[in-house]
Amino acid sequence: MSKPKAIAIMGPTASGKSALALALAQEFGGEIISADSAQVYAGPDIGTAKPDKRERSLVPHHLIDIRTLKEPFSLADFKELAQNLIFRIWEAGRIPFVVGGSGLYLRGLCEGYTLIETPPDPELRERLNSLELPELLNRLAKADPQTYEKIDRCNKRRIVRSLEVIEQTGRSFTELSRCTPPPFEVLKLGLHWERQALFARIDLRLKEMMAQGWPEEAERLYREGFAEDLRCLRILGYPELLDAIEGKITLPEAEELIRLATHRFAKRQQTWFKKEPELHTLSAGEEAYSEACRLIREFLRH
User: Fold this and answer.
1) Which residue ranges form the domains of the chain, and what is each CATH number?
2) 8 A C-beta contact, residue 102 and residue 36
3) Residue 184 gets which letter from DSSP?
4) Interacting residues of 234 by C-beta distance below 8 A, sequence separation 6+
5) CA distance 189 to 282
6) What is the pLDDT of residues 268-277, one digit of tens each?
7) What are phi and psi of 62, to 5 degrees?
8) Is residue 55 a contact partner of residue 22, using CB atoms and an 8 Å limit?
9) In this predicted model, what pLDDT tens digit does every residue of 90-128 receive, in sequence order?
10) Number of Cβ atoms within 10 Å of the Cβ of 13
11) Measured over all CA atoms, what is the biggest interatomic distance in the chain, rounded to whole angstroms?
12) Is the CB of residue 41 less than 8 Å from the CB of residue 235?
């Protein structure tokens, strides 16, 4: 029996990957599996750019709103759920499209990372979280130089997680992490924008999100008791809006901080995706759709 086939569409925030995926899924009779580490959580909708009701009615979407903000969700959870969905969608005679900007989720699934499962240790995590980022990075550099070289050094949560594994197992994160080919074939497509054009798209989308009621959404979640969870999860933009709600900064200041943080995030995403193995890069614009269709037809024929 031939392996299932999946299409992965990736790119930085505001690059248009969701709109491209929707059009392609309609063209090829597909279903969309979200590879977004924030869209799994019910509640933060506007700030995570979730597909709206119309888009979800056009094409089935999966792995959106499947956890509360107080429930954990890991890379291992994503990999298991997404892989099961790929098989289920393919067996139903449809095409699975894995779509998102969470590079680690995409690479873990498509490259077949063998994931490390260690029991939770709240005391260890609290102790590590209490340390400043430079100290954590210094510890990681000494304990596991290879992971230190590859890790996003602005992502405290991932740095803490690597140190957790090292302390719990006595072995390096690199030593325990290995890849095995996934049980499906994948075509990887990446949307690329020149940086200044991408920044302009980010700025425009931010203004649209604010007008759609993002500050009011953040205030509702704050009043429902999710402020600490949103800060802990570090979902882009929400910590700044919570600071504005608490009177620490003004709303215009929060908007500017979100704009700059999103620019930095997009730059990190672009750097990550440049290193993605076997990625077919699509220059964003009118030709991206037709080129994606050509590549997908060729991929499905073989």
Assistant:
1) 5-114+180-301 (3.40.50.300), 122-176 (1.10.20.140)
2) yes
3) S
4) 156, 157
5) 7
6) 999 888 888 8
7) -125, 160
8) yes
9) 999 999 999 998 888 998 899 887 656 666 677 888 899
10) 18
11) 60
12) yes
Q: Which token pair is 16?
A: 């248009």
* CA 10 – CA 100 distance, rounded (Å): 5
Three-state secondary-structure class, residue 272: helix
Start-to-end CA span in the chain (Å): 14
pTM above 0.90? no
For the chain, give the number of residues.
302
Sign of the four-CA dihedral 227, 153, 98, 117: negative
Q: 262: closest CA among 14, 4, 2, 10?
A: 14
List 185's β-bridge partners, or say none. 5
Cβ atoms 101, 11 nearer than 8 A? yes
Tell which residue, 133, 101, 79, 93, has the closest CA to residue 8: 101
